[in-house]
Amino acid sequence: MEFEFKRDMLHNTIKSHFSMGHEALGVWLEQEINIDLACISRLLNQIQLLQTQGVEQFELLGAEFSLFLNQEEARVVANILLSDNDELPDDMSFYDEESLALCGLEDFEQVLISYQRFIQTGY
Questions:
Q1: How far apart are CA 32 and CA 60, in angstroms?
Q2: pTM of the entire structure?
Q3: Which pLDDT tens digit goes with each residue over 45-63?
Q4: What is the rounded CA–CA span in Å between residue 20 and residue 1?
Q5: 87 phi and psi, to 5 degrees?
Q6: What phi, psi does 2 have (nearest 5°)?
Q7: Distance between CA atoms of 31 and 62, rounded to whole angstroms?
Q8: How, if at all, do strands 13-18 and 57-61 pair?
Q9: Separation CA 108–CA 21 (nearest Å)
């Protein structure tokens, strides 16, 4: 998985660019985490609990996207996909790739560490 963070000078925000199939991770970072260093620290601590303390899973429900962690992987899902309705309207199928992303827990940890560093250096 490849990713890059850039500063949007016009809006003073961070833009995240992820390789195909992982785009939802970037959208989740931008919309749900933004520059919340405390949240990133909590997530890094939670990953340590998953890896070392036998905690089996963790969920962080967001306004637009939610994060699900287990001992092996991280999953970011658009909340619209979590509804009881199993089918999306036909015009929404194009956006499926930007609505769901999976990666290994260690890869996700590296994304968070990189994002944290980017913010701390003044993005």
A1: 10
A2: 0.87
A3: 999 999 999 889 999 999 9
A4: 8
A5: -115, 135
A6: -110, 145
A7: 9
A8: unpaired
A9: 14
